[in-house]
Amino acid sequence: MAKGTLYNKIWDAHAVATLPTGQTQLFIGLHLVHEVTSPQAFDMLRERGLKVAYPDRTFATMDHIVPTKSQKRPFTDSQAEMMMQAIERNTKDFGVNFFDFASGRQGVVHIIGPELGLTQPGMTIACGDSHTATHGAFGSLAFGIGTSQVRDVLATQCLCMDPMKVRRVEVNGKLKPGITPKDVSLFLINRLGVKGGIGFAYEYAGSVFDDMTMEGRMTVCNMAIEGGARAGYVNPDETTFTYLKGKEHAPKAADWDQAVARWKSYASDNDAVYDEVVKFDAADIEPMVTWGVTPAQSVGVNDVLPDPQAIADSGEKETSLLAYRHMKLKPGQKADSIQINVAFIGSCTNGRLSDLRAAAVVAQGRKVAPGVQAFVVPGSMMVRQAAMAEGLDKIFTEAGFEWREAGCSMCLAMNPDQLQGDQISASSSNRNFIGRQGSPTGRTLLMSPAMVAAAAIAGHVTDVRNFAPQGAVHV
Amino acid sequence: MSKIVVLQGRAVPVVGDDIDTDRIIPARYLKEITFSRMGEYPFYDERFNADGSKKDHAFNRPEYQGASILLGNVNFGCGSSREHAPQSLVRWGIRAVVAESFAEIFAGNCVMLGTPALVASKEDVAKLQKLAADKPGSVFTVDLQAMEVKAEGVVVKVTMPPSRRNALIEGTWDSTALLLANAAAVKAKAAILPHPSGRM
User: Fold this and answer.
1) Would B177 be classed as within a structural domain?
2) ipTM of model
3) Which chain B residues are within 8 Å of A83, Cβ to Cβ?
4) Which of A147, A196, A255, A423 is most buried by its number of CB atoms within 10 A?
5) What is the sign of the dihedral through the CA atoms of A19, A21, A23 and A29?
6) Residue B174: predicted pLDDT
7) Does residue B177 surpass a pLDDT of 70?
8) Do A434 and B32 touch (CB under 8 A)?
9) What are the pLDDT digits (tens) for A232-254?
10) What whole-number distance in Å separates Cα of residue A135 and Cα of residue A217?
11) Other C-beta atoms within 10 Å of A23: how many?
């Protein structure tokens, strides 16, 4: 078993009791709530006559179903409107903090937690959303939960948990110019597999993570779950503290120094013991693009699509064949030959200011290819405001991208932003599952936001370094 | 809560690795604010064409109607944390899932609904899936005491985390009551841990 890691320290600090089942009762420091996975949980509380135990540790927003063209109420989609009314009613009835449109702080739950300074090192963080792993970028233990567990956290601020194992995932050396955190993430999932992380928390480490910005770390931790790891984290360091300083909810004045000292104490010890350690060389990472129906089915942008017949494992081979049938692509085809119909920049993976800046570098002074629908969905109202303050919206609209309101949008297509028929998208989101972007026959190519912008301009997948050769897109 | 020790029923094979929760239940059905209709939707886009006509899927085949044990492969239930996925399976009639491996969140969600998510070896899952395909009328027994699944003379060993097994066989899988029992200890813990408002 792992010892002396950040994971162990946070676990121990938050363990309340050992339950009769043998599980640990784990205290949850921060509970984030959104409109889709919570209404049933609030109703369960009503049925049982329970209150929200710690409303001051509970923060809600709406992101999954909000339209991004017009957010005028009532929403055109009556189901979405009902869901909005439910979160408004539930947060009011139970006294939960609510970041709605009027607050100016609405956005994707995994974007607003960090930007408001709610997400802090050493915390346990839960949310009814698998991409909660994002918050691990701050050196917190953050994971997704189902709705019945949302009920448990609302009612008790705790979860029944079994400990995970800890795998240290090191990427050493220096990334080549033009390689972004999204490429690192897709590369790691490709190498470790979509099921490689089952039962593990991933500790991302090595010089690449030491040098990475907080927003980059969030991108990689966000997709830990796509590699099967329910949680991923980076040890807190000066980069973390600099990011947090001055954020709305971050500790202030005398509390700040005390907080930093405490946060530092959570970092894994130099002699920490891990269940597993794996190491990669940064120089091996190319701009990555997925071609299949799992986030591990990816290649470097200048590579050809792989031969399924070369796969030894029968199950993996079947998944590969399924992917080729769904994607209507051919083994041996060059990745950069794939034409696209739609370009989507946004999501909890890549909807932050640095992502939009990186895409804008590519878009500036160029035009979206004829026939391609390209749109940018900022991850939050605050990201949107900050981007507009530096004129990114103008760069995008002049290049032919639509500039939208904040939300999850076409990452999971619960709002009107959906692929039609078998359209193929270049997407900065996190999942290329069959049907994920709203059409059962729709097709998704995952890549970095800069690569999406490049694909939008070219009309097909292309190496972003052709557009921004000096690494200007590095975030 | 009821104790879940032995379950019996016919089995439905759902073959393939990495069957994600978007495939189990497409996101558009998550717009409903209750789980009550989820039983109508499992594998919806794999079972129905856009015009509503049926596709060939195990959940559509007459021989598997009324089956209560789902036989899956590797990384079953990966992706989204949506509890709507196990809710849709349970409300369709599934009482236990046996697979080569599960995504963590999905397996945890199953237990919250009193539904065992059991792991068996690749060879054993293949045996069970073949039996369910060749003789769909076979009655399977899932035994959490013996940690076995058996049918027609085939007996395979299954595993699950001991704590989850305990919760099911002791009938304590509804965790809210367990957690509420320690409210005082929780209060003491909350008082010494930092607060997201920045209070130390």
Assistant:
1) no
2) 0.97
3) 31, 33
4) A147
5) negative
6) 84
7) yes
8) no
9) 999 999 999 999 999 999 999 98
10) 9
11) 24
Residue A158 DSSP class: E
Q: Which two tokens stand for residue A91?
A: 């947060």
pLDDT, averaged across chain A: 97
CATH 3.40.1060.10 for the A165-284 domain, yes or no? yes
- Phi, psi angles (nearest 5°) of residue B72: -115, 180
CATH domain A7-160 topology: Aconitase; domain 3 (3.30.499)
Residue type, A406: A
Sign of CA dihedral B51, A80, A219, A110: negative
A43 close to B (CB below 8 A): yes
Q: By C-alpha distance, which of A411, A356, A74, A440 is closest to A223?
A: A411
Instruction: Provide the residue ranges of all domains of chain A, joining segments of one domain with +.
Output: 7-160, 165-284, 289-466
Q: Do B179 and A436 touch (CB under 8 A)?
A: no
Residue A473 has pLDDT above 50, yes or no: no
Residue A416: half-sphere exposure toward Cβ, Cα within 13 Å: 12
**Is residue B188 one of the residues assigned to a domain?**
no
pLDDT tens digits, residue range A265-300? 999 999 999 999 999 999 999 999 999 999 999 999
Tokens matching residue A303: 């590579």
Interchain contact A147–B (C-beta under 8 A): yes
Q: Name the residue in chain A with its Cα closest to that of B170.
A: A21
pLDDT (tens digit per residue) in B129-175 = 999 999 999 999 999 999 999 999 999 999 999 999 999 999 988 89
Question: How many distinct structural domains can be found in chain B?
Answer: 1
Strands A298-300 and A231-234: unpaired
Helices (H), A376-425: 381-389, 392-399
CATH fold of A289-466 reads Aconitase; domain 3 (3.30.499)
Residue to substitute from A65, A195, A222, interface B, most B β-carbons within 10 A? A195
The token pair at A109 is 């739950």
Got the DSSP string for B81-149?
Answer: --THHHHHHHHHT--EEEES-B-HHHHHHHHHTT--EEE--HHHHHHHHHHHHH-TTPPEEEETTTTEE
Name which of A132, A156, A326 to mutate to probe chain B: the one with the most chain B Cβ atoms within 10 A of its Cβ.
Answer: A156
- State the residue range of the domain holding B75: 6-172
**Chain B residues lying within 8 Å of A250, measured CB to CB:** 198
Give dist(CA A444, CA A60) in Å, integer.
Answer: 29
- For strands A288-290 and A298-300, give the pairing: antiparallel
> Residue B100: inside a domain, yes or no?
yes
Would you call B74 an interface residue with chain A, using a CB distance cutoff of 8 Å?
A: yes
Amino acid at A138: F
Q: A289-466: same fold as A165-284? A: no
Contacts with B188 (C-beta within 8 Å, 6 or more apart), sequence order: none
CATH code of B30's domain = 3.20.19.10
B112: closest CA of chain A, how far (Å): 7
- Please indicate whether, in this complex, the C-beta atoms of A39 and B16 are within 8 angstroms of each other: no
Q: Take residue B123 and report the two structure tokens written for it.
A: 């060879």
Number of neighbours of residue A31 by Cβ within 10 angstroms: 26
Domain membership flag for residue B103: yes
pLDDT score of A468 more than 80 = no
The whole model's pTM is what?
A: 0.97
